[in-house]
Design brief:
lyase; mainly alpha; 4CMD/NDH-1_regulator; CMD-like; single chain; 7 helices; disordered C terminus; EC 4.1.1.44; 4-carboxymuconolactone decarboxylase activity
């Protein structure tokens, strides 16, 4: 394993949690291995390890971009990561609200629904849905 892949795996585990990474790794096949290595090395080992932004900020940006692009399948994972990176429930809501102002209410509405579902299963002070 090269240095960037090693660093990427460490950061990926710290941000997403070992359980998530273990699940993803256990589903890796020879066909998907190059893509998993690419994600780990390029995204986690090259981007998330850069010193220019802290992990809290990177989580905010990631949630905003995923929401804006309608990448709903990734939002739950990154809501959990945002909590792990120190964002409060209120800060996550602010990111989604802010994104809605610029990317559209329907996409933010979907992200809020996903976020509420995830946060309700976590040990946080999550307000109940109205």
């Amino acid at each position: 394993m090269n240095d960037r892949l090693e660093k990427g795996m460490r950061v990926r585990r710290e941000v997403l949690g070992g359980e998530h990474v273990d699940r993803a790794s256990s589903r890796t096949t020879e066909f998907t291995r190059p893509f998993q290595d690419y994600i780990t090395e390029a995204v986690w080992g090259s981007i998330w390890t850069r010193p220019g932004l802290d992990r809290r900020t990177r989580s905010c940006i990631t949630l905003a971009v995923l929401t804006a692009l309608g990448r709903h399948e990734e939002i739950a994972m990154h809501v959990r990561a945002a909590v792990r990176n120190g964002l409060s429930v209120e800060e996550i809501a602010e990111v989604l609200l802010h994104t809605g102002a610029y990317a559209g209410v329907p996409t933010a509405n979907a992200a809020f629904a996903i976020g509420q579902q995830v946060l309700s299963t976590m040990d946080t002070d999550t307000p109940e849905t109205a």
